[in-house]
Amino acid sequence: MPDLVLGISCYYHDSAAALVEDGAPRAAAQEERFSRRRHDPSFPAQAVQYCLQESGAKLDDVSAVVYYEDPGLKFGRVLTTFAAAVPYGFAPFREALPDWLAWKRRANDTVRDELAGLGLGQVPPVVCRRHHASHAASAFFPSPYESAAVLCIDGVGEWATTTLWHGRRSNLRQLAEIRFPHSLGLLYSAFTYFCGFKVDSGEYKLMGLAPYGRPRFAEVIRRKLIHIKPDGSFRLNMRYFAYLHDHVMTGRRFETLFGGPRRSPEGPLTEREFDLAASVQQVTEEIVIRLARTARSLTGERRLCLAGGVALNCVANGKLADRKIFDEIWVQPAAGDAGGALGAALSVAMERGASRAHLGTGRDGMAGALLGPAYNDAAIRAYLDEHGLPYSRPEPDALIREAVAALDGGKVVGWFQGRMEFGPRALGNRSILGDPRDSAMQSTMNLKIKFRESFRPFAPSVLAPDARDYFRLNQDSPYMLLVADIAPDKRLAGPQPEGISGLDLLKVQRSLLPAVTHVDGSARIQTVAEEDNPLYYRLLAAFKERTGCPVLVNTSFNVRGEPIVNTPAEAVTCFMRTDIDMLVLGGFILRKEEQPAWREGGDWRSDIPLD
Amino acid sequence: MRRAALFLLYYLVLTPVGLLCRTVRDPLHRGVRPRASSYLVRR
Ligand SMILES: [Fe+2]
């Protein structure tokens, strides 16, 4: 019987469960994909059920359940923060304390009770690991490196907001940390909030906005908001932030510093937001690069592993890779708190004597992050037949050929295959695909499928062996977590057209891959290796064979504000609601023009919150 | 009732304790240290 460890992260945001089998990730999924509530923070009952089902286990077979942070320690931090903010924080105190007293300070007991309520057998002991220990374990243990420096940067867990580790084989040792309230993640979130985006999810938008702006506020940020040491460690000037005593991130002093109140979420994006985004992005990159140098000198390692929410900042990761401080970096695909579930389980599995079996293969232990549920063709056919949806089922080669022909003809293709991805990005199993050479593709996909205007381009998937021909990239980026420039010979020369400014800049064609090129000539790249995803690789290879272009536009299979689809039924619903032209669902092809009219009660768009 | 208890707890217990703590040593280490070479806490 293999040794099974179940990891759980929940009660903050993006809850998830992960099952580790003899030290290897066996199954992992975010609860939002089942509950269909984006960033669902609740106990991940369905994700737990899925993980156990995937390995044919019951709770009795699991050696330990691990909660991804230490609730007692976190309660101490929360109380200390209230005490430090007196007499200004009564409102949040009044709202938060009852929950902390009732159950949050013993969240692992709550987890045990929830597990018992699932009726899946006897609940094994529930233990916890510290928040950053979970992040660090998720960054190092599945990495392809025998030894490495590890850097975790996020908002906050218990006390630590930035930690630095040395990983060797099955051992992780913490070297240093920075503590709350001094937090790079919270600094970034403060600007996210101030620019009118949602904290904990809008950070991505702020990063996407940065290339439109000039970093004219970077000096003010360094002078007034954050004091940075040469080694990258920092302290925030808390007089400018409100999160110690309020529900909001920034207060009046912050507004005064940046010329007026925050942008309202519905308000227009102006030069100020562009420049704020560019400025905080620049400061973030500076800190990440300095911390990486420190990690290098403290450990002497030539490889770096990253996790924590800030490690989802793929622009900063790209700059870091470009600087060559380390020979190579590896970023946990579920770098945010969902990945804490996996890290917590890995951490305990290693203590229980598991080995890192993937070492020596030259590959990482994440199985391409394809750790979620799969649905076989029998299940898909049953669903399609039941709903009377016309389909064809060509031979595998013909399936690829037909999909490639559609893509080359400017069609948008829904691509649903195999196991769902773990982490925020779709990597070719729950993806919507298009032709990156098509200059209209960016707005087509946004308006007809995602139902939004976007100031961000889509991400390209590229055949790993061809990546360097198209992008200035000096290492693989299997999880879409590195941004790099389009290769010079794929860019279009010529002066910037006159009279175009602001968000319209995205419409200017700058490269041979306009749908995936940002206004600064960069792209958020996914390199696809044959071993990680053979079918997706074959699709890209066939597209290259037909068109000469080894790149596809890859965006997540969902509409704006909705979690990525999990089941065939959700994929069909998304296909029918939108202007996706073709749906490839396992071995089946559905063409929009052959489908009956789609009817559903009410306006489904009103059920999906704005993101 | 609960609201009143929380009010008393906050202003009669936490506030004096918090103010007292802060006069001795700020538990959140606010404020910069220009002469220190690093803010890293070594473990
Ligand atoms: Fe975190």
TrEMBL record, chain A:
Residues 406-592 form the Carbamoyltransferase C-terminal domain. GO terms for molecular function: catalytic activity. Gene3D superfamilies: 3.30.420.40, Carbamoyltransferase, C-terminal domain (3.90.870.20). Residues 5-346 form the Carbamoyltransferase domain. It comes from the Bacteria. It holds the Pfam family Carbam_trans_N. PANTHER family: NODULATION PROTEIN U (PTHR34847:SF1). Belongs to the NodU/CmcH family. This is Carbamoyltransferase.
